[in-house]
User: Which sequence fits this backbone?
């Protein structure tokens, strides 16, 4: 089981604090020896300011030994640091929380800073105290407090590097406190920051990920990290899966995944499978972009190209189903994939949904290719008993567009699918559908350039005359 | 200096050299030394280039009597001198005649001739003959009178003549100035001058007197040596003629003579070798070695031929020696730019207070050594044993490069280190493991080792990786590009297709390669081709086809890979172009077998194209969809009235393609597998097996496409039997075709059959579809054109529903997935790398470009 576990691969890309839930999950699943997981947890906790937690872990590990004295020392240190930082931060906070100040603050950060400086004698250094205190709070596990301070800091500060760092901190805090809505918002802004950032000023992100010297590399690193962190949000937020597809299938992130972290493909593949229903629902309700609609096709393509560097049952399932059309193998892979999904920290919630959707995909593909299907055979393909299978198929036919074409012949126990091929007229109409609109857009663009061009030539003409 | 009789004495002298020096040292007999002086005078008089006078073979001379010997040089030189004088006088005569008719053009040319003769005279260290001085004085006066006349009667002379006259005036002025002393002396006492001249020339040629003041130091020094020789030998050889003290003087003499027209290079090398023997201190040895190596490289001045192997070998040894001296004692450093220092003084770390800096450049020696090696391989017939023998020298060269690398690592000179590492990389990137191991083990044996060795890194790939990583880090972008390409090539060679492909795509080289130099473009082409072969070997037929297609559409594969000069049918190359082209050619052992390449390309084309051909039913589409090179061959094969048994690789493949079209996959397989060239491919057996499997699959697809209209149902088990594929594979292939809507059919599970739903389209319906397609293509084309016009990324088409943006996004994603294909298409759209490349090669090919456009 452990062979397909990704925790080990993912943890290096996570913050210390974000790894705790993962490890706890591992401990619960007991796919690794408990001692090892605990040791790992202890090692993690040792680096933070959460001594009590670390101490209890230590005691769990070595029930007989005395906890090391360094904890006491650290605790003292931490308490004094806390007080000092709090005092510093409090001064700023007092000012900011003053309703007058809150009202007079504007969009322009520089102006705000000037205002604070003039009226309340607040300097940039003092504001940085907010950041320091926020960071400190984060380090001992007071995530909501940290989120607060970092938020205030970001509103005021003009320091780009620290701002980015604060962004990451806030995102982590929001994730750890489980405020998914806020975290999602934070994630989006952070993504914008990374994408829009001119490579030169990415050093902050670089220092967070590694001491990479090259800006392009730093950007790649930040994107890799973001891809990992966002898993927390996307698999917990109700709209998350669709958003995940939207993000990860965009060319920049797809390239990031392909170059630096192909294992994310598992989550991409799972999300694509899960999105099946939302896609079909979406066609009626909220508009879903074509990227999500064609997610599976896209994902299959990527899986195929990356097959040489990453493969697991989830991706293998898609590959067998849509590349090889080997339904038996797909069914086998599905059984293994189900287990993996059930054990994965991010995916565990979606196990049933995953299975449901995967079955649907199989039967859809099966029905499209076959004309006459033995119900028993199909049920077997879906890992279902005969009765269950029949029920499932009836539901399937009812739910989907196939309704008109498929009939069940109970006597022979087969489904007959009669799909009239598309009339030629229809294909011609399909092909020519968007043409008028596209041509219009072309015309508009040309006339726009024409104006610009003539404007330019107007400007030039007098110059020549002179 | 390339006449036939020239070559003879030089080879004999070099051959006789070691024996001679031994003689000198042991003071055996005077005859040998005389034969040497003979030799010298021989070459001296030979220098003025008299093809009419045959040179005497040396062997015969050494047998001569002593008494004979004493006189002969004088006599011979006298005759030469006289001849020269006669010649001069003849010129003078012509000039006089021309003077009479006032033809200044003739005078000018004759005077030039005369001046050249005098120059030669100088080089053989003879005094200026009085005749010349006399002519000079005469000319000066007549020029002056002519000018005076000219002023009075303006319209008498034509333009060219007038020009020649003024030119003459300048020349005479210059010449008179140069020989001022002689002229003065002559004017004072013409007879005395003449007498003096006669006495000097009747004396021994090598007499140290210098009657002419304008003589150069170089010749004087050269003479000095000759005198030394004579004295030492005469005294009985107590001391050697070159002593440690006189080294710098000799060295300077040699250096000054370097590059002059009539310097005897073989002689110079010999002098320097002797100097090297006597050199004591490191400083002396470094200086002599520097001079010696460069004069060895100078030996062959013409660009077309290569350095003789013996010379090359000794140069290589000397570079080694130089490197080890400098590496052993860090107090000496060789730099391209140094402060000025006195060439004639001995220097040591103590006199210089630290590091002694000497002007010179080891890296350029190493570069030159490598270049000469390549050049010799280019010129030697690759099918002879000489080529193989020469190739064995690569080991020594590789060692030298490694030593140089170690030296630069030690002294931390980054710029030359990068260059030397590149050289090293170029020697190993395209070689199989066994060869690299052999080279590396030789390099390992030397006492100075670079930090990166095969034994330290473990595998060849790791070694190449570390070399490349160093070059990636160094700032030089050219080296970086080349290292990257070599690295990719290496990966491809070792069947690591995915890594190689990813590296190539991530490097974005295909966008910038057009602006690179020709050598890098060649390397790029080689890399791409190797990548294609790698894909073929790994069974990735589609990738192989699209990778190789680009280079095969140009039909100039050999030229693009620098493995042969393309025969231009309509235009003739100028000699310079041809020469440049020849220099670019790769040595034979680096070649990628083009026949194998073509076989790989055509077979993969066959596997891709034949099913495609079968799937398309309208003629128009057929014409468009097929790649040109394969299509052309297929058409040609179709037109053949009678097809005999296949002979060439192409015949095999064409007949195999036809068999595949007819559904006879077994025949196709047999034909393909009987191609002999596969034996050159590593893992030939597995490749053949892979091909057989592909042929089965594609045969099935082709069969279904071709014969589907004639069936309403078709049993899967029959298909499985016919193509001897497992039922599961058949089902999988059929399912795939149905899913991709290539085949309008469905499976009937209970009966185990494929049911075809074919609808015959009426003609208007077909036309309607075609029209719809065309209109769609037109709009696409328009959008593309506008895109280009707007500068690509300008978001003119961002419609509110965002469809366009997504489409573009999808395209970019696809780029990676189907990287190969996209790249091919992009190259085509730009007019092709071929077109750009041909510009780089200096020959335009309008035919090709228009073909692309059309």
Assistant:
């Amino acid at each position: 089981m452990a062979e397909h576990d990704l925790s080990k691969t993912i943890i290096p890309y996570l913050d210390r604090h974000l790894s705790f839930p993962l490890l706890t999950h591992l401990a619960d699943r007991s796919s690794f020896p408990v001692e090892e997981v605990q040791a790992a947890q202890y090692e993690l906790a040792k680096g933070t300011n959460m001594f009590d937690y670390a101490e209890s872990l230590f005691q769990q590990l070595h029930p007989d030994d005395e906890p090391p004295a360094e904890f006491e020392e650290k605790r003292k240190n931490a308490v004094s640091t806390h007080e000092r930082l709090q005092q510093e931060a409090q001064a700023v906070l007092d000012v900011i929380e003053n309703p007058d100040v809150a009202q007079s603050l504007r969009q322009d950060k520089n102006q705000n800073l000037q205002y604070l400086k003039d009226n309340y004698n607040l300097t940039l250094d003092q504001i940085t105290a907010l950041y320091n205190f926020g960071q400190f709070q984060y380090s001992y596990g007071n995530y909501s407090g940290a989120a607060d301070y970092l938020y205030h800091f970001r509103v005021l500060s003009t320091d780009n590097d620290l701002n980015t760092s604060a962004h990451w901190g806030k995102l982590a805090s929001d994730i750890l406190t489980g405020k998914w809505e806020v975290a999602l918002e934070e994630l989006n802004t952070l993504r914008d920051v990374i994408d829009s950032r001119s490579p030169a000023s990415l050093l902050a992100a670089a220092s967070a990920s590694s001491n990479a010297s090259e800006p392009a590399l730093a950007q790649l690193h930040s994107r890799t990290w973001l891809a990992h962190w966002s898993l927390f949000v996307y698999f917990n937020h109700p709209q998350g899966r669709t958003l995940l597809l939207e993000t990860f299938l965009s060319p920049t992130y797809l390239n990031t995944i392909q170059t630096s972290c192909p294992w994310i493909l598992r989550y991409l593949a799972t999300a694509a499978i899960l999105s099946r229903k939302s896609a079909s629902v979406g066609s009626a309700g909220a508009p879903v972009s074509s990227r999500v609609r064609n997610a599976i096709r896209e994902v299959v393509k990527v899986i195929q190209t990356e097959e040489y560097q990453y493969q697991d049952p989830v991706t293998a399932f898609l590959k067998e189903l849509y590349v090889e059309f080997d339904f038996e193998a797909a069914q086998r892979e599905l059984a293994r994939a189900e287990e993996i999904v059930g054990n994965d920290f991010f995916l565990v919630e979606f196990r049933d949904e995953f299975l449901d959707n995967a079955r649907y995909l199989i039967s859809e593909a099966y029905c499209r290719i076959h004309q006459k299907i033995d119900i028993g055979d199909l049920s077997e393909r879906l890992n279902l008993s005969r009765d269950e299978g029949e029920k499932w198929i009836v539901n399937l036919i009812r739910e989907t567009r196939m309704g008109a074409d498929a009939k069940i012949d109970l006597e022979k126990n087969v489904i007959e699918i009669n799909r009239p091929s598309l009339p030629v007229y229809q294909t011609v109409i399909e092909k020519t559908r968007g043409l008028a609109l596209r041509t219009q857009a072309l015309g508009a663009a040309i006339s726009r350039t024409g104006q610009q061009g003539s404007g330019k030539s107007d400007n030039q003409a007098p110059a020549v005359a002179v | 200096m390339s006449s036939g009789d020239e070559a003879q004495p030089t080879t004999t002298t070099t051959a006789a050299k070691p024996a001679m020096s031994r003689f000198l040292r042991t003071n055996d007999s005077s005859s040998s030394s005389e034969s040497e002086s003979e030799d010298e005078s021989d070459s001296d008089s030979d220098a003025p280039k008299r093809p009419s006078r045959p040179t005497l073979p040396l062997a015969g001379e050494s047998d001569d009597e002593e008494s004979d010997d004493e006189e002969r040089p004088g006599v011979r030189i006298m005759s030469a001198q006289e001849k020269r004088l006669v010649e001069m006088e003849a010129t003078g005569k012509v000039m006089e005649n021309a003077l009479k008719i006032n033809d200044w053009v003739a005078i000018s040319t004759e005077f030039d001739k005369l001046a050249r003769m005098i120059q030669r005279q100088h080089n053989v260290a003879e005094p200026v003959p009085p005749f010349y001085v006399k002519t000079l004085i005469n000319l000066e006066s007549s020029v002056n009178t002519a000018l005076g006349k000219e002023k009075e009667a303006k319209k008498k002379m034509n333009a060219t003549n007038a020009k020649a006259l003024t030119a003459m005036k300048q020349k005479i002025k210059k010449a008179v100035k140069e020989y001022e002393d002689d002229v003065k002396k002559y004017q004072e006492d013409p007879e005395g001058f003449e007498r003096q001249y006669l006495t000097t020339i009747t004396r021994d040629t090598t007499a140290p007197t210098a009657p002419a003041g304008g003589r150069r130091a170089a010749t004087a020094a050269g003479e000095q040596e000759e005198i030394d020789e004579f004295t030492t030998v005469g005294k009985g050889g107590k001391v050697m003629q070159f002593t440690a003290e006189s080294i710098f003087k000799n060295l300077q003499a040699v250096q000054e003579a370097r590059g002059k027209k009539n310097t005897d290079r073989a002689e110079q090398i010999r002098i320097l070798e002797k100097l090297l023997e006597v050199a004591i201190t490191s400083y002396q040895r470094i200086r002599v070695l520097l001079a010696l190596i460069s004069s060895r490289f100078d030996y062959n001045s013409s660009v077309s031929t290569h350095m003789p192997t013996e010379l090359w070998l000794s140069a290589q040894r000397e570079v080694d020696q130089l490197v080890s001296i400098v590496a052993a004692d860090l107090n000496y450093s060789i730099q391209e730019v140094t402060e000025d220092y006195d060439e004639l003084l001995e220097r040591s770390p103590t006199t210089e207070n630290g590091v002694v800096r000497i002007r010179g450049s080891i890296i350029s020696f190493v570069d030159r050594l490598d270049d000469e090696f390549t050049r010799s391989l280019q010129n030697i017939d690759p099918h002879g044993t000489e080529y193989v023998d020469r190739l064995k020298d690569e080991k020594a060269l590789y060692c030298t490069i490694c030593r140089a690398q170690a030296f630069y690592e030690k002294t931390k000179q980054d710029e030359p280190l990068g260059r030397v590492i590149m050289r090293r990389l170029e020697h190993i990137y395209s070689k199989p493991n066994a060869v690299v191991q052999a080279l590396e083990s030789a390099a390992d044996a030397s006492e100075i080792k670079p930090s990166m060795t095969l034994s330290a890194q473990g595998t060849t790939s790791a070694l190449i990786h570390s070399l490349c990583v160093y070059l990636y880090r160094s700032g030089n972008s050219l080296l970086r590009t080349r290292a990257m390409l070599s690295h990719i090539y290496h990966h491809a060679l070792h069947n690591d297709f995915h890594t190689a492909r990813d590296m190539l795509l991530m490097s974005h080289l295909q966008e910038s390669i057009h602006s690179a130099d020709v050598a890098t473009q060649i390397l790029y082409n080689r890399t791409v081709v190797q990548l294609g072969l790698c894909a073929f070997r790994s069974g990735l037929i589609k990738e192989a086809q699209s990778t190789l297609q680009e280079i095969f559409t140009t039909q100039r594969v050999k030229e693009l890979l620098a493995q042969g000069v393309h025969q231009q049918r309509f235009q003739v190359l100028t000699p310079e172009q041809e020469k440049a082209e020849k220099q670019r050619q790769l040595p034979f052992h680096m070649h990628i077998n083009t026949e194998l390449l073509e076989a790989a390309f055509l077979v993969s084309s066959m596997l891709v194209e034949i099913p495609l051909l079968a799937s398309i039913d309208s003629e128009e589409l057929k014409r468009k969809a097929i790649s040109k090179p394969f299509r052309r061959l297929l058409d040609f094969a179709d037109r053949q009235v009678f097809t005999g048994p296949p002979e060439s690789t192409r015949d095999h493949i064409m007949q195999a393609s036809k068999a595949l079209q007819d559904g006879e996959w077994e025949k196709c397989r047999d034909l393909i597998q009987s191609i002999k060239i596969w034996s050159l491919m590593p893992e030939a057996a597995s490749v053949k097996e892979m091909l057989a499997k592909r042929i089965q699959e594609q045969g099935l697809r082709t069969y279904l496409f071709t014969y589907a209209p004639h069936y309403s149902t078709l049993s899967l088990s029959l298909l499985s039997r016919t193509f001897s594929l497992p039922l599961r594979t058949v089902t999988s292939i059929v399912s795939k075709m149905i899913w991709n809507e290539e085949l309008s059919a469905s499976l009937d599970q209970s009966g185990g059959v494929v049911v075809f739903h074919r609808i015959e389209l009426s003609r208007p319906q077909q036309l309607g579809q075609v029209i719809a397609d065309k209109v769609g293509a037109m709009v696409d084309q328009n959008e593309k054109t506008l895109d280009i016009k707007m500068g690509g990324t300008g978001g003119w088409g961002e419609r509110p529903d965002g469809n366009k943006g997504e489409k573009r996004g999808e395209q970019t994603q696809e780029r990676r997935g189907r990287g190969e294909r996209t790249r091919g298409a992009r190259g085509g759209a730009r007019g092709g790398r071929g077109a750009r490349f041909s510009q780089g090669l200096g020959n335009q090919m309008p035919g090709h470009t228009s073909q692309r456009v059309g």
